[in-house]
Structure formats: C-alpha cells, structure tokens
Design a protein that fits this description.
Blueprint: H1 13-16, H2 21-36, H3 38-50, H4 53-60, H5 64-82, H6 87-102, H7 107-128, H8 133-164, H9 171-184, H10 194-205, E1 213-217, H11 223-233, E2 241-245, H12 251-259, E3 260-261, E4 273-274, H13 276-279, E5 284-288, H14 295-307, E6 309-310, E7 319-320, E8 324-329, H15 333-338, H16 344-350, E9 354-357, H17 367-375, E10 380-381, H18 383-391, H19 397-411, E11 416-417, H20 424-432, H21 444-458, H22 463-470, H23 474-483
Parallel strand pairs: 1-8, 1-9, 2-5, 5-8, 10-11
Antiparallel strand pairs: 3-4, 6-7
Bound molecules: adenosine-5'-triphosphate.
Adenosine-5'-triphosphate binds at residues 186, 189-191, 217, 219-225, 288, 330, 373, 398-399, 402.
Length: 487
C-alpha cells in the first residue's frame, strides 16, 4: 500500500527528525532490552484505548482484530527501534492508522495511548539501563525524536483516513472529530507576569469579535495555546477549531490542504477532497506560521477573507465558507512586507488585532508557576534547580522548559528534581549566570543559609547525612539550623 501523498513531507525521514549515526547506535544498544519487555507496554496501550466507549464494544468482544492490532504494534515497535525509516515504515504506520479508523478508534484515544506508551518505554529504559546516566539521557532524547516523528505520522494517517472517508461521513461528523482532537490537548495557560495578564485581558476583550486575530511570538511561547483560548472564548466555541501549520508542508500540498482539490487535479489526486477551510466552515481555522505562506496562496487566502469564496484546486466551482481566522507567526510581518515577502493588504486583513506573546526570558517570574504546572503536586526541587532555570535564557521558550522538566522527572530519584539532571546545555549556561558570583548583592550569610537549606532538603531532613555532606559535625549542623531558622 502506498503512503498517502501528504507524506511527501516525511520522505527523507532520517533527515526530517535529525537522526545521526550516534542516535542510531544508541537506540541499537538498547533495542533488545526494550523489545524483550514490550508486551506489558503494548497491553497498556490497548487497556487505554479500550476505555473509549466507542471502542469498548470491539475490544471486549475478543475480536481477532485486536490480536491483529497488537501484532502490528509489536511489528511497529521493532521497526521503530531498528529502522530504516523509509516508505515501508510510513506504509506500516499508515495501515495501523487506517485500521484504527476502520474499527472506529478515535485519534484522541490513540494519541493518549501513544503518550502512555512513550512514558512506558522511557520508564523501562531508565529502570533497566542506568549504568551510564549521560548516555541514558541522550538515548531518551533520541527515543523522543523517533516517537515525535511517529506521532506526527499517525496523526496524519488519521486525518488522511478521515478525509478519505469523508464522502461517507457527514461533514459534521468529521468536524466533531477534528474538534475533539484539538480539545483533548491541555489548554490551560499559566503565568502571572504583567505581560501574561495583558494577554488574558486581550483574550477576554476579543471574545465578542469575529475578526481575525494575529498572535505573534517566538517558537514555543504558547501561540497555539492562545489560539485555543481565543476559540473557546468566542461564539464559535461549540464549533471545530482546525489547525494547520504552513511551515510543515510544501506549497503545492498546502494549497490542497487549505482549499481542497478535485479528483484528477494533479497526479495522485484519486478522489476529491475538501480543504480545511471547508472542514472548518462555521468554526475557526488557526493558520500557524502564516509568514511562511507563499505569494500565490497569500492572494487566495486574501480572497476567502474578503468574501468567503474559494475554489478547490482543479475546480471552477465557487464555494462559500464562513470561517473565523486566527493566525500566528514568529516572524516580524512588517519586515516581511518591507522585503516584499508578505502582502501588505493581507497583513491588514489578518492583523485587526495582535496579541504579542513575550519570550520566557522576559517573564522569568512565570518560571516557578510553569514548573509547578508541569510537575504536578507530588514533586519537589531544591533551590539550585530553580536558580538554574531562572538564569537560563530559554531560546525554545515554554516548550523547552516543559521538555527539560519531563527529562528531569524521568531521571529523578524519588520525588525531587535535581539541577544536575537538567539537560547539559541548560545546566551549564544556567549555572554560569547563576547569582552568588562576584558583584552579587547576596551576602555570605544568605549564601550559607541557602546552601545548608538545599542540602538539608536534598537529604529529606536527615541530619546525619546532611552533616556528612556538608563536612560538619551534627552539633554544628543543629546550631546552624537553629541560627538560620531552617525547619
Ligand atoms: N503559558 C503557558 N502555560 C502552559 N503551557 C504552555 C504555556 N505556553 C506554552 N505552553 C506549552 O508549551 C508547548 C508549546 O506551546 P505552543 O505549541 O502553543 O507554542 P507555539 O508558540 O505555538 O510554538 P510554535 O511556534 O513552535 O508552533 C505546549 O506544550 C504548550 O502547552
């Protein structure tokens, strides 16, 4: 079976996910261990999806499809860990996606189950392969790269299978699925800095308008999250929110994704397909990375925004849609206009109002709250951990912070996050810039206190171990704890 045409973007998979020889060596080194213990993880995957009421019927029926699905999942795991990541790999994943769709499994549940599976694999790695912590961390990063790619492929396989079924499914049904998928992901925005309060105020104030809104900010600052919040606050909230990222697709595919195509419009267009504007009809379309949109598509987009009309690729028929547009960019569109890369008229259309998301390094006060949000209640950390985080520059913004926390959780012993388990680049730079260097206003007493308190906390209040670690007697430790009022 051929992978769907939209998979052109994955053609050179290895390059797409930036896998190098070292990555492959690392995965090869742990492959047998992961495969030998994969059965409970695969069972867990099916336990998770069997919770879905729609699929409970199929799963509990002892249907032979389940055995088949488990078999293909094992096959997939073997191939994920062995490569090569070529069109056979895509075809295999596509078949799994199509089978899931055929028996009514929801994309949402598959994605939830896949993320459980990711946790299971990472836990397994951490449990059985602790001899070289640095290597372990790098291996987890490689595994995450592979799983990120795989998740993108399976999400696409669903979209493609749904769209292929769209002649049978009613449009509402299709919209519901897309909406459900988007809703499922966490939409809670965290942060109390002045800049974020302004963002919340703008979201509230724009609730009543149907006009397009432009969200501007560096990668990972939460633009998609804000788009979801804008959609939820709007009168379209009961309708679908459809998301497309212009940077992820080449121009020709993007055109057909956005505006649809007719059968025979180009080689491989074996059936007519509605574009995302049609799928989002009556709801919201969020166009991410709009600055990447090529000139011809900018003109076509302008036309939909002006009068709601569009033509599918290869069709002369005018169609009308009513879609609320949200757009995001990490480029400065004013500069793009100056350079002749973005149409000024389109800019004024989409930029009725701009929400500016500041980079994390300009709202370091939010870091603590974000860390609590990403860890949940059961985790602690020492002050050194927070110090490093607060001093790092976060070029990848909140996404990078979230990933760093996830990795530190995996490597933590018990329930305390330690600075030394942070990714090396963060630990190095965050430590260099940390306070207490010459010129810092912190006095010696304060430094002493925080060092003692940290150590005490790291050893969970065990005085003998704390005293040993600090190289002082227990009596001295008692005195210092009392003096500094450390409990
Ligand atoms: N203020 C925030 N509160 C909680 N989570 C956040 C916040 N900002 C970002 N995140 C999380 O960080 C990750 C990246 O966010 P998101 O995808 O919205 O960023 P983005 O700006 O759209 O990135 P890109 O430009 O790369 O697409 C997501 O997991 C999101 O949930």
């Amino acid at each position: 079976m051929q992978p769907p045409e939209s998979y052109e973007k994955y053609l050179d998979l290895q390059q797409y996910i930036d896998l190098n020889d070292e990555d492959l060596r690392r995965i090869a080194a742990v492959r047998e261990r992961l495969l030998a213990h994969s059965a409970p993880i695969i069972d867990d995957f099916y336990t998770e999806i069997s919770r879905h009421p729609q699929t409970a019927r199929v799963i509990t029926g002892g249907n032979s499809q389940i055995a088949q699905l488990k078999f293909s999942l094992r096959q997939w795991l073997r191939q994920l860990l062995s490569g090569p990541y070529d069109s056979d790999y895509l075809a295999l994943r596509t078949r799994v996606g199509q089978r899931h769709v055929a028996i009514g499994l929801d994309q949402v549940y598959t994605c939830v189950a896949l993320s459980r599976m990711r946790n299971g694999l990472i836990r397994l790695l951490s449990d059985t392969w602790q001899e070289a912590p640095d290597e372990l961390l790098l291996t987890i990063q490689t595994l995450n790269k592979l799983l990120d790619l795989d998740q993108a492929i399976i999400e696409d396989a669903y979209q493609a299978a749904f769209l292929a079924q769209s002649q049978n499914l009613s449009k509402e049904n299709l919209q519901l699925r897309v909406a459900l998928e988007r809703e499922q992901r966490s939409t809670h925005i965290v942060g109390n800095s002045e800049a974020m309060l302004e963002v919340y105020r703008l979201i509230d104030r724009t609730a009543a308008t149907d006009k397009p809104i432009l969200i501007q900010g560096e990668s990972g600052t939460g633009k998609e999250l804000v788009a979801k919040a804008l959609h939820r606050a709007s009168r379209f909230s009961g309708k679908p929110l459809v998301v497309i990222n212009c940077a992820a697709l080449p121009e020709s595919l993007l055109e057909s994704e956005l505006f649809g195509h007719e059968k025979g419009a180009f080689t491989g267009a074996i059936a007519s397909k509605p574009g995302l504007f049609e799928v989002a009809d009556g709801g919201t379309l969020f166009i991410d990375e709009i600055g990447e949109l090529a000139g011809g598509l900018q003109a076509k987009l302008l036309r939909v925004l002006e009068d709601g009309s569009l033509r599918r690729v290869g069709s002369v028929k005018e169609r009308r849609v009513n879609v609320r547009l949200l757009a995001a960019t990490n480029r400065d569109l004013a500069i793009e206009i100056e350079k002749g890369r973005f149409r000024e008229d389109l800019y004024y259309r989409i930029n009725v109002l701009t929400i500016l998301l500041p980079p994390l390094r300009e709202r370091r006060g939010d870091i603590l709250q974000l860390v609590s949000h990403f860890t949940g209640k059961s985790w602690n950390w020492d002050s050194r951990f927070m110090e490093v985080l607060e001093n790092y520059s976060w070029p990848g913004n909140v996404r990078q912070l979230r990933n760093a926390i996830e990795r530190t959780k995996v490597l933590a012993e018990e329930d305390t996050l330690l600075a030394e388990n942070l990714p090396p680049e963060i630990l190095r730079t965050g430590s260099e810039l940390a306070p207490h260097k010459p010129g810092s206003e912190a006095d010696l007493e304060t430094i002493n206190r925080s060092h003692i308190a940290d150590t005490f906390k790291r050893y969970s209040g065990n005085k003998a171990r704390t005293a040993r670690a600090l190289g002082i007697s227990r009596r001295t430790l008692y005195r210092l704890l009392e003096k500094h009022a450390i409990e």
